[in-house]
Amino acid sequence: MKTVGPLGGDYDVEINYGKEVPAHLFEVGSDEADSSVESVIVSEGVEKIGDYAFVYNKKLRTISLPNTLKEIGEGFFKECSGLSLDTLPQSLTTIGNSAFDVCFELKITEIPNNVTYIGETSFRRCIGINSISIPFSVLSIGYLAFQRCSSLRHAYIHCTSSEIKVNTYQVA
């Protein structure tokens, strides 16, 4: 069941698709400036959000992610430049390539303890991130994962991964 429209409270859309939200669900073509969706609730029980589910939604400001979410697909919130998000669910294990690329307002300070994979360019140009803590559970950090995070001043890498790609933290 997908509910679109005023739900009461601060959310425009509630998503309840069982365990997996389809890819390209609210994708807005890059030639369109944005969509009308400003806030989203993803219901408990959802474990995966498909690739490019919310890509290019420049008006998207808030999202509520469930504690059951394990995987964020590739390009999940790519170029959702107005999205403000402070924490990720502790259940999360995978952050796909370009998942939060160009999310200027993202303020994540720690990667959840169950994450094993951080994809290429996953947090690129997230200028709202000023420090990040990466736990021991992370086995792989993709190429340019934190590239051009111009406010990033402190990166606490607790993992012993041999899969940290060159230029992961390139600022310029």
State the helical fraction: under 10%
Number of helices: 0
The SSE order reads EEEEEEEEEEEEE
**Which ranges are low-confidence, i.e. pLDDT below 50, for 5 or more consecutive residues?**
1-12, 26-34
Description:
The chain is mainly β and 172 residues long. The chain has a single domain, classed as Alpha-Beta Horseshoe (Leucine-rich repeat, LRR (right-handed beta-alpha superhelix)), CATH 3.80.10. 0% of the residues lie in helices and 20% in strands. The chain is built from no helices and 13 strands. The strands form three sheets. The chain has a seven-stranded parallel beta sheet with strand order 3-5-7-8-9-11-13, with no helix packed on it. A four-stranded mixed beta sheet has the order 1-2-4-6, with no helix packed on it. Strands 10-12 form a two-stranded parallel ribbon. A hairpin with an 8-residue loop joins β1 (2-4) and β2 (13-15). It is globular and about 40 Å long. The N and C termini lie far apart (44 Å). Mean pLDDT is 78; it is low at 1-12 and 26-34.
Give the topology, please.
Blueprint: E1 2-4, E2 13-15, E3 20-21, E4 39-42, E5 48-49, E6 62-64, E7 71-72, E8 94-95, E9 117-118, E10 131-134, E11 140-141, E12 154-157, E13 163-164
Parallel strand pairs: 2-4, 3-5, 4-6, 5-7, 7-8, 8-9, 9-11, 10-12, 11-13
Antiparallel strand pairs: 1-2
In a nutshell, what does this entry contain?
The protein is mostly beta strands and 172 residues long. Helix content is 0%, strand content 20%.
